[in-house]
């Protein structure tokens, strides 16, 4: 087909599917192990409960589903990440076509290709990536529900809002922004006179109810973690001003990538190009030569729902002293491209569109190339090159050699046990931090009965050469502490320092102890 005859819909699906395919294949090929958050989600997903150490249940359950589909292969993690990104792009595309035109909606989607949140950061399937999909879906169906008042739109709004909160409590802020929008507009206020909004609320409550029933039975563990983000050791100014300022500038800096791409349709001459005679580029097909005046409803929606979560995040940090992680901004910018495009509505010519599409393709390839080179260069300390598969295999083999039984439990710092639980063929349950408080799925009586492998690793925990904490040796007097071992990094360069780790075995109760704490020495072995 003639390149100039393509419609905005065809361009949308071509770019989005190509982006999804690229960022599915790249980590599948260049990473030896999944990123940390994905690995942690896989560890959580071994036990289908209504909540986990840091988050509600959605991330862990989806990770479990992904690994079930692939028979525990990493590629399904990256596939689910890209499905989330694809859902975000589709939501912005659908919303953009309703508020603006297909061509401007296409631009609003493709400028997001310049943000790390939709490529490099999305490789790590986690709660933030779940929000990438759900926040734009919430916005889309809020708009549709308010403008059509159709029951299916209200139901979908309730489902996606409930799932969003079950991905991460942070979803409470866009929900608050949505409520503010509804209360601030005549159309939104009128919705409270119909049954749809209350059905949405009922559906939302059904989705989140199991988690909030689960919480008090587990000492409100996820809430404790969330509110633990207040840093009492920082100064007053740092807590109530510094954290918010850092997050503010970090998000603006991240959005510069989208602004660079958008510049290709803002700058340039306004003269007609030779494509204007093409059926795909006349006014009826969405090619515009003048701005569309937005009504008050659309303007309020874009500003409040689009930027509201960002503003509320800053205000919450200022008020409560919350320390904000830059990556929490992952879902925040989903509608920013649409807001900017709607407010500016650049005069489009076919020459501008051609330059823009070429720029998007080039930037996408350059980001992919940079990601590949950064992970595959020799000597990289990226988590992609952690030799944790080898360590997990040795841990499991050593356990079998000593006790001739399945390894049921592994204990240690969060990152170390997440990798061991993920890559040991026995898929042991994880006792995080040697504390059942952070691992409510672990039956401590069964833990002592079946025994466990304890582990320390560099890069993921304190230096293993320093040994296990004294309180552990007192709590488990028959713990067999093995010498420090080492293994080469994957893609190591000559002379690169090895990756150190240390095991300790808690023998099963029905097994004869085959060692003692005298094995706790600082000699090293290698594999």
UniProtKB/TrEMBL annotation:
Residues 56-214 form the Glycosyltransferase RgtA/B/C/D-like domain. Keywords: Cell membrane, Glycosyltransferase, Membrane, Transferase, Transmembrane, Transmembrane helix. The keyword Transmembrane applies. InterPro entries: LipidA_mod_glycosyltrf_83, RgtA/B/C-like. It is a multi-pass membrane protein. Pfam families: PMT_2. It is found in: Cell membrane. It comes from the Bacteria. Its main location: membrane. The chain crosses the membrane at residues 12-30, 75-93, 100-118, 154-184, 196-215, 243-266, 301-322, 328-349, 356-373. One of its GO terms (molecular function) is glycosyltransferase activity. This is Dolichyl-phosphate-mannose-protein mannosyltransferase. It comes from Piscirickettsia litoralis. The lineage of its organism: Bacteria, Pseudomonadati, Pseudomonadota, Gammaproteobacteria, Thiotrichales.
């Amino acid at each position: 087909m003639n390149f100039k005859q393509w419609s905005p819909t065809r361009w949308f699906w071509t770019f989005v599917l190509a982006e999804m395919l690229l960022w599915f294949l790249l980590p599948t090929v260049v990473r030896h192990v999944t990123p940390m958050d994905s690995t942690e989600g896989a560890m959580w997903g071994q036990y289908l409960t209504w909540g986990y150490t840091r988050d509600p249940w959605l991330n862990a359950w989806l990770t479990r589903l992904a690994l079930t589909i692939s028979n525990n292969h990493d590629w399904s993690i990256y596939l689910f990440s890209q499905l989330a990104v694809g859902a975000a792009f589709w939501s912005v595309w659908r919303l953009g076509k309703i508020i603006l035109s297909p061509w401007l909606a296409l631009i609003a989607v493709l400028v997001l290709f310049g943000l790390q949140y939709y490529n490099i950061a999305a490789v790590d399937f986690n709660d933030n990536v779940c929000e990438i999909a759900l926040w734009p879906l919430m916005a889309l169906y809020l708009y549709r529900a308010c403008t059509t008042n159709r029951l299916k739109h209200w139901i979908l709004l309730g489902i996606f809002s409930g799932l969003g909160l079950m991905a991460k409590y942070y979803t409470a802020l866009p929900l608050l922004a949505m409520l503010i929008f509804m209360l601030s507009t005549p159309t939104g206020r009128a919705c409270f006179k119909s049954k749809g909004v209350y059905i949405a609320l009922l559906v939302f409550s059904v989705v989140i109810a199991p988690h909030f029933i689960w919480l008090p039975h587990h000492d409100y563990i996820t809430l404790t973690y969330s509110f633990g983000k207040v840093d009492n050791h920082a100064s007053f100014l740092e807590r109530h001003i510094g954290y918010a300022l850092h997050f503010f500038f970090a998000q603006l800096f991240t959005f510069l990538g989208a602004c660079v791409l958008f510049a290709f349709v803002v700058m340039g001459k306004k003269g007609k190009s030779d494509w204007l005679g093409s059926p795909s580029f006349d006014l009826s097909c969405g090619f515009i030569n003048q701005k569309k005046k937005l009504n008050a409803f659309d303007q309020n929606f874009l500003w409040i729902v689009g930027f509201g979560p960002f503003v509320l995040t800053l205000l919450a940090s200022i008020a409560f002293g919350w320390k904000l992680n830059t990556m929490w901004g992952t879902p925040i910018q989903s509608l920013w491209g649409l807001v900017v495009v709607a407010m500016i509505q650049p005069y489009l010519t076919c020459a501008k569109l051609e330059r823009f599409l070429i720029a998007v393709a080039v930037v996408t390839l350059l980001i992919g190339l940079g990601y590949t080179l950064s992970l595959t260069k020799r000597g990289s300390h990226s988590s992609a090159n952690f030799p944790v598969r080898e360590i997990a295999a040795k841990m499991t083999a050593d356990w079998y050699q000593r006790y001739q039984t399945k390894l049921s439990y592994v204990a240690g710092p969060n990152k170390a046990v997440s990798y061991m639980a993920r890559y040991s063929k026995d898929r042991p349950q994880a006792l995080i931090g040697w504390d059942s408080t952070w691992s409510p799925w672990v039956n401590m009586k069964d833990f002592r009965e079946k025994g466990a492998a304890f582990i320390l690793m560099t890069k993921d925990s304190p230096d293993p050469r320093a040994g296990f904490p004294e309180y552990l040796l007192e709590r488990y007097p028959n713990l067999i502490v093995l010498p420090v071992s080492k293994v080469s990094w994957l893609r190591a360069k000559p002379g690169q320092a090895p990756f150190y780790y240390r095991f300790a075995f808690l023998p099963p109760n029905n097994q004869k102890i085959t060692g003692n704490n005298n094995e706790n020495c600082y000699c090293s072995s290698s594999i």
